[in-house]
Amino acid sequence: MKGTELGVTDFLPFLSKRSIVKADIGSEDNRLSRMKKIARSSAQQCRRATVPEVYPYAKYLDVLSADYDVKIFAWEGINGGSETLYKAALNLKKGQSVLLLIGPEGGFTEDEAKLAVEHGFQAVSLGRRILRAETAAIYAASLIGARSEEE
To answer: Which of 55, 56, 64, 137 keeps 20 to 30 A from 39, CA to CA?
Structure first.
């Protein structure tokens, strides 16, 4: 799990309208068990003192209500004049907790994007290209990790 190597502390899998994964809310299936094992071995490999927490599947609304200092979501539906994740990361302060939402392969719906904004999330662009969910997560974790380790 690349996020472990990049300093991610929590993985909060959620189900949204376009999620490909079909799972029960609050459940823990083989995918989550495997993610936990990978997080443990990745933490050992990169000599992290703590293993990231991998939570059970949650409802999208429950994740939006989570308590973090900074809430950001990557959304390809915003136009070119909107803030990039890089610029948003420059505003992060040392010690702030950051919740970054990366949507499913089909992206967030308009309604999900509006809900995120209503819950205090800042919509950001990851750049000119549409990234696959796994690439977007690695890219975003790298930017935020680099910024948090800078100070």
So the answer is: 64
Q: Residue 40, class by beta-carbon neighbours within 10 Å (0-12 exposed, 13-18 middle, 19+ buried)?
A: middle
Determine contact, residues 69/98, Cβ cutoff 8 Å: yes
Q: Which amino acid is located at 96 in the chain?
A: Q
* Rounded distance between C-alpha atoms, residue 44 and residue 117, angstroms: 37
pLDDT for 82-117, tens place per residue? 689 999 999 998 889 999 999 888 889 999 999 999
Q: At 97, is the secondary structure helix, strand, or coil?
A: coil
Interatomic CA distance for residues 68 and 65, integer angstroms: 9
Which secondary structure element, helix H or strand E, spans residue 14, and what is its range?
strand 14-15
Token reading at 150 = 């800078």
Q: How many CA atoms lie within 13 A of 26 on its CB side?
A: 0
pTM of structure = 0.85
Percent helix / strand / coil, the chain, rounded to 5: 40, 15, 45
Query: Over the stretch 129-148, which tens digit does the pLDDT of each residue have?
Result: 888 889 999 999 999 988 87
**DSSP-derived secondary structure letter, 103:** -
